[in-house]
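Translate structure to sequence.
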């Protein structure tokens, strides 16, 4: 007889306490029950044909009659999704966060792709999702988060948990919620979260979220610094720092004359620049030359391609960049790092520029984005049609009015003063 079958080695099985209490079926394979470890609230269990497994959901009530009603509503939802072949997966917040950050980590390790992500941004995302996860509960299911959850106290929660122990502004809280939204979209795109998942977020004060722009005097101050030999030739005209400063100069000027987002500018390639064409300035009657820049959808915030007319001396600045750069092939970046790879425009570079220019940003929200804001404000003051401006900047009319319309909008009769070709650019 084998020793593995002796009585001594056999362990007595303990009586298991049922996981489900007070269980009963409502219809078909739709069961209502209370969890042994889940308090008195009712749950339901429904088999999903598309997911090929049981879906469990809390019914959020201790009342039996109400539990039955909620279960029937959920059953109808499952049936509807099953009929279209759509999943009703409810991935946990912690699980989705892990997958999302793994994907972002891979992006941060890319060196040449336009889809890369900075290490700093990855750290911000990680910190943000940790904070939001603690608020929601990491074990909570994304598809089961009550629609009003964020409305019920996320702002208050963030003010209480702020590490810096100071009042957070709406911009910071909005940025955190945007990261979470991005993660949910990531889950939906990969079938980890149901397409029907719709979370409601607090409407934040748009005024406090508006970025500051430079005053005309400050703009002149900055450009004077950028054109000075003291700034450009530091510490010597042939030094690495000096070369980068020339690029910083043209990045700033191009952003202020195109309204591009800094990410769109960083990812811009020479092949995206169209052929030069002339137009007649409606104000002066002068014949001028400019180009259009093609922004592929993968480089845009809205994931929609668009064409951007280069304003003022922007075209001249881009020509100067080409003379300076050693990377001028069609697929080369216009503003690369010294090795030709993607150059993420850090706020540290911007802050140093403000410091050297003598522009005080202590009490103001001046960032690289302020270049875009400066562009939008100036075009509105010049009477550019708000619809054309929204198209040019790749944003909505409402956003233009909220963020750039704080100064009086003059008569909107101009058409960006430039004839729009709207054709995909050819390589220069």
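Result:
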């Amino acid at each position: 007889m084998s020793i593995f079958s002796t009585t001594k080695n056999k362990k007595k099985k303990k009586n298991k306490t049922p996981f489900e209490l007070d269980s009963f079926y409502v219809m078909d394979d739709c069961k209502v029950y209370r969890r042994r470890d889940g308090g008195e609230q009712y749950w339901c269990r429904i088999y999903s044909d598309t997911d090929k497994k049981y879906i469990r959901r809390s019914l959020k009530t201790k009342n039996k009659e109400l539990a039955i009603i909620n279960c029937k509503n959920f059953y109808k939802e499952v049936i509807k999704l099953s009929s279209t072949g759509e999943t009703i997966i409810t991935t946990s917040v912690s699980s989705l966060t892990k997958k999302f950050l793994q994907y972002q980590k891979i992006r941060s390790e890319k060196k040449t792709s336009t889809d890369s992500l900075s290490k700093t941004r990855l750290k911000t995302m990680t910190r943000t999702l940790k904070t939001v996860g603690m608020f929601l509960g990491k074990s909570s299911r994304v598809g089961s988060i009550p629609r009003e959850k964020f409305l019920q106290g996320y702002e208050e929660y963030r003010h209480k948990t702020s590490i810096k122990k100071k009042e957070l502004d709406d911009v910071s809280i909005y940025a955190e919620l945007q990261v979470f939204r991005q993660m949910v979209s990531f889950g939906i795109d990969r079938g980890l979260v149901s397409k029907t998942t719709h979370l409601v977020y607090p409407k934040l004060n748009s005024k406090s979220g508006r970025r500051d722009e430079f005053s005309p005097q400050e703009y002149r101050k900055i450009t004077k610094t950028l054109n000075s030999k003291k700034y450009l030739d530091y510490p010597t005209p042939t030094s690495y720092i000096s070369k980068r400063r020339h690029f910083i100069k043209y990045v700033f000027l191009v952003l202020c004359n195109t309204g591009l987002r800094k990410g769109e500018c960083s990812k811009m390639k020479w092949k995206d620049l169209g052929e030069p064409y002339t137009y007649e300035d409606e104000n002066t009657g002068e014949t001028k030359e400019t180009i259009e820049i093609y922004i592929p959808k993968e480089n845009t915030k809205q994931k929609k391609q668009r064409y951007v007319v280069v304003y003022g001396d922007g075209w001249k600045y881009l020509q100067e960049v080409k003379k300076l750069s050693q990377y001028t092939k069609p697929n080369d970046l216009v503003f690369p790092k010294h090795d030709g790879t993607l150059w993420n425009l850090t706020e540290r570079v911007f802050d140093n520029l403000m410091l050297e220019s003598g522009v005080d940003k202590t009490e103001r929200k001046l960032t690289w984005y302020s270049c875009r804001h400066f562009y939008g404000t100036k075009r509105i003051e010049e009477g550019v049609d708000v619809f054309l401006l929204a198209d040019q900047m790749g944003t909505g009319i409402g956003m233009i009015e909220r963020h750039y319309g704080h100064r009086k909008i003059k008569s909107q009769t101009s058409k960006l003063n430039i004839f729009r070709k709207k054709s995909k650019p050819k390589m220069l």
